[in-house]
Write a structure and sequence with these properties.
alpha/beta, Aspartate Aminotransferase, domain 1, 19 strands, 16% strand, globular
Length: 486
């Protein structure tokens, strides 16, 4: 139960939520869904009799949005794990999951059951002024795990990753006397609010926006450079770069935003020592260490990536989202703000908060983490399939350069845990775009990452995906790449 009391003196709300009628109704819904879901077992083409109505739906969606959709994707409302059915009757492997949102795939009984229970509250949305306990239960679960490897003590829930990033920025600004500058890594992505679009290192996302946020960009770890010189030289260079910003703008930086694994930037990784040395400099100069885990959360060898890299002692602020459904800003007591700084008419829906709590519990108890955990097993299976594809078709996978003048190539298969990428056709933007569409037509949904070179990105539903699914997924990938190569 989400509220404190379980005694006979329960509220009418508790009696309703836990009545045999309600429990039976939820079970009926979930069982009916599972019976239909079980019939979705493989990729299939759309049904001809649905083609015209589907095209009409797509036209209506584009007209409402003001721009056509990237993929002709409109879900039917049903799927089966890593397989999703579209409204034209087609079925595809979903290897991007709403850019990382649906870790437990499609039509998962536990997540759907929690969502239905959350939807039966007296209101749809919880908020700062009036709320049930659901957002705070979600917060408690996160904080209990977060506290094992950090000093994080408090949590504020919000409805999107961009909003929790905005809240983290406000906490940093207030704590550091409105110091106006922000440090972030080159090629970072922060969201699409006005401020987050300015911090994110993508010019296309801020065309026409006024530039009111002062951002200093740091180099991320460059594996090719480190291999050519040494990891220590790469780390020393980054530290020198950071110190030069601090010397140029003394006491002007409120925070340094760390993506421990870069998402949109290309699923770039770095050794622990790289982050530790930069974080030490931040601590010595009273700059908040903000760990952005909106995409990373839940996908590495631990629930929090800072635990995977053992840097929790340094973090002041952590933001999480995507797979958690409800999103959150976690912060230490030192960053606990004054009244009025954090508030929201909506913190999240009952469905999102209930589903988020269900997901956190399952992540912690499902054997996903550790060296031999399910996430590690899936990453190994992905690499085996991707590397075999490279070996079979070396002409599809020429060397990929970090930039045209780089003397060393980057890996053709990369990522960490549940964040996976491979790099066909030299990472050329147009060819990678064609790969995405061709693979989609062959029955597998993918996306891209990187800013040149470009990569094919996967954020699979590892909460429900089977290890034996990987060869079937890559059969569709191979068919798609063959179309582009031919």
């Amino acid at each position: 139960m989400s509220q404190a009391t379980t005694s006979a003196a329960a509220t009418h709300g508790e009696r309703f939520a836990h009545s045999t009628e309600v429990e039976g109704a939820v079970e009926t819904i979930v069982n009916a869904m599972a019976a239909q879901s079980a019939q979705i077992t493989d990729v299939r083409a759309g049904r001809e009799e649905l083609r015209e109505s589907y095209e009409d739906l797509m036209a209506r969606a584009g007209a409402a949005r003001g721009r056509g959709l990237m993929y002709p994707y409109l879900g039917s409302g049903l799927g089966n794990g890593a397989l999703v059915e579209l409204a034209d009757g087609s079925v595809k492997w979903d290897m991007i999951c709403g850019i990382g949102v649906h870790f437990f795939g499609h039509s998962d009984p536990g997540v759907v059951g929690a969502s239905v229970r959350g939807a039966m509250s007296d209101t749809i949305m919880h908020g700062n002024l009036q709320s049930g306990f659901e957002p705070y239960e979600f917060s408690e679960l996160l904080l209990a795990e977060a506290a094992k490897g950090s000093k994080l003590k408090h949590c504020f829930v919000a409805a999107s990753g961009a909003l929790v990033n905005e809240n983290a920025l406000k906490l940093a600004f207030q704590k550091h006397g409105a110091a106006p500058r922000v440090l972030a890594f080159k090629d970072c992505f922060m969201g699409r609010t006005v401020t987050m679009s300015q911090i994110g290192d993508s010019a296309g996302n801020r065309v026409g926006l006024p530039l009111s946020t002062l951002v200093d960009y740091m180099p991320f770890y460059d594996e090719a450079y480190a291999a050519r010189t040494s990891p220590k030289r790469m780390i020393d260079m980054a530290c020198e770069h950071l110190q030069s910003y601090i010397d140029r703008y003394p006491k002007q930086h409120a925070c340094f935003i760390f993506e421990l694994v870069q998402g949109e930037g290309g699923f770039n990784t770095a050794p622990r020592e790289f982050f530790v040395e930069l974080m030490k400099i931040c601590k010595a100069n009273d700059i908040a260490v903000w760990d952005d885990e909106v995409q990373t959360f839940g996908r590495t060898a631990s629930m929090f990536a800072y635990d995977t890299l053992d840097v929790g002692e340094y973090v002041d602020l952590v933001t999480i989202g995507k797979m958690s459904q409800a999103c959150a800003t976690l912060f230490t007591e030192e960053y606990n703000p004054g009244p009025g700084l954090l508030s929201a008419t909506f913190t999240g829906s009952g469905s999102a908060c209930k589903a988020g709590s269900e997901i956190v519990r399952r992540l912690l108890g499902g054997g996903y983490y550790g060296e031999g955990g399910l996430i590690a097993q899936h990453h190994k299976a992905f690499r085996e399939q991707a590397e075999a594809l490279v070996a079979r078709h070396p002409d599809w996978f020429p060397d990929v350069k970090a930039h045209p003048m780089s003397p060393s190539p980057v890996g053709k298969v990369g990522g960490i845990g549940g964040m996976m990428r491979f790099s066909p056709f030299g990472g050329a933007k147009d060819k990678v775009g064609k790969c995405l569409r061709a693979c989609y037509d062959e029955g597998v949904i993918l996306f891209s990452c990187g800013h040149g070179p470009y990569h094919v990105r996967m954020l699979p539903p590892l909460g429900v995906m089977k290890l034996e699914d990987w060869p079937r997924v890559f059969q569709a990938v191979e068919r798609g790449l063959a179309k582009v190569a031919g």
